[in-house]
Amino acid sequence: MNIPFDNTYAALPAAFYTRLDPTPVKAPQMLAWNEALAQELGVGPANADVFGGNAVPDGAAPLAQLYAGHQFGNYNPQLGDGRAILLGEVIDTHGTRRDIQLKGSGRTPYSRMGDGRAWLGPVLREYVVSEAMHALGIPTTRALAAVATGEPVLREDGPLPGAVLTRVAASHLRVGTFQIFAHRGEIDALRTLTDYAIARHYPQADGAMGLLRAVCAAQAELVAAWMSVGFIHGVMNTDNCTISGETIDYGPCAFMDAYHEARVFSSIDQQGRYAYGNQPRIAVWNMAQLATALIQLFDDKEQAVEEATQIVHAMPAQLQAAWLRRFGAKIGLPDATAHDQPLIEDLLALMQQDGADFTNSFAALGTDTARDQFTDRAAFDAWHTRWEQRTGPDAGQIMQRTNPQIIPRTHRIEAMITAAVAGDMAPFERMMTALADPYAPSPDHDDLRRPPTAQEIVPATFCGT
Ligand code: AMP
Ligand code: MG
After folding, report:
1. Is 109 in the pocket of ligand 1 (CB under 6 A)?
2. What is this structure's pTM?
3. Residue 148: CB partners within 8 Å, gap ≥ 6?
4. N or C, which end of the chain has less CB nearby within 10 Å?
5. Cβ neighbours, 10 Å, residue 381
């Protein structure tokens, strides 16, 4: 087993983490291995002992990271990796530093009431959805391996098969990593962390305010990208908000079937805080928390508050511009301006009124089947006339590049998990193949494009720890 580790986080002050090995498991068995990613990282071959946590590879510096975070708006002064271990970092073939982390690898000092484990369902869900996100061209953590532990994990519904996911990330720095040191008044640690984050992610950024500006821009782009594919993250807590701008933590997430702005999936999100249409606002709120932490670095607080406020207040306009660019392209406009906003919004309103499928409606635009997606055909036809007047000859090409034909549908993910629990990995393999090419999928996978029937609808998703 070769992993060319080059670790930097482990060289940071001891207050940033706890060094500890993953907890061994009974009978590790390789369930999934991402060979293309492995080659990008220079890692291999697949090894169930290493990626199940039973063997610590040469050069690893295993540790659990410390962080805090706002969960559903309430500050939790200490979270941290309660079920994850960072093995170390490698430099990939593009020259980018990447974290290799085991998730579900046993208890840590930050586990609180948790068992430090994960069951097969959420492990495979994260594997499929994060890889689908990558294929869609949206920044995300990646999945390198899934290993069955051979041990049961006890959850509300009884014992479930345990598993470990190997997650790869540009880093695991979160807004919450900054919050913990700021909140504790550990300014030296906060400064060290800020310098580390700038060097690792935004070397061109000018100081803490430059970092804030860069993270705001990355998060604005990210959330606009989620919106454009109907993705609902589900737990946009500040501990699940990365500094790199990658999507992280696929818990109760989902891609919408029928479009509704207020759609929520997560069973624990009773207030709809993380509803589809609220995500841009929450992204700004999260950046305000990062700003609050970074302000602690400055002697002249008044001036720092002013500058940080300006940066955060610029974010809604960035989000709006990114949204317009992406949704403009979804209806075939290469150059959408504020004048086109009503055309886009009216289509979304129609989709919401008719319960039209988000993915399939956009995918069908410009084809004979577009109006079949709507029940109010007259209203659609009227919209279509306006749309035809606005678009040019390149609209079809633009839309083909922008509108995925296939996304991981929640009901198919649930069916895939049920099969995997029964020992059948074929639906997982099939989903992975189909989702690898979302803009031009093979007709063999047409069934995976179909929205759920009334009986198939999965009303809620669960954190699934
Ligand atoms: P998440 O909702 O997955 O972002 O997790 C929030 C916090 O709970 C993090 O500190 C996790 O490490 C911790 N956590 C989640 N599930 C478990 C578990 N099964 N055992 C220990 N800690 C957990
Ligand atoms: Mg998390």
Report:
1. no
2. 0.98
3. 27, 28, 29, 31, 52, 120, 161, 162, 163
4. N
5. 12
